[in-house]
Fold this protein.
Amino acid sequence: MMKNDVLNSHKLGNKFYFQDGDNQIACFGHIMSGKEKIYVNDELVSEKRSFGFKSNHDFNYQGNAYTVKFEMQNILTGKVECSFYKAGKLVKQSTQTSLTDNPKQVALVTLGCFLGGAISGYAVVTFIEPFLGK
């Protein structure tokens, strides 16, 4: 078991936890930087940066071969699936979503961001135009 939750220090990302006997596997993927880290019992066993939709982390711990797979399933909602394998066999999968899966709410957020950007852009141009002249 983990003495400390090493993922408490990580922000802006997805955190997944898996159990294999007495070993706790903690997986973290940063939303912005693409940095992924895998810990077993507080020990960092794999780390890399990935900007693709899929990534694999293969590592050995106490004579066992493990794989952790991250897969971005929906970039608009931030839905990420993390799969944990031991000796090539799927042990467990977990999914997290940054935003909601509700298409109406996603459309509302997108529209709000678009309108906010349009209003801000108009305000900036209106403010700067007198200084630039015509």
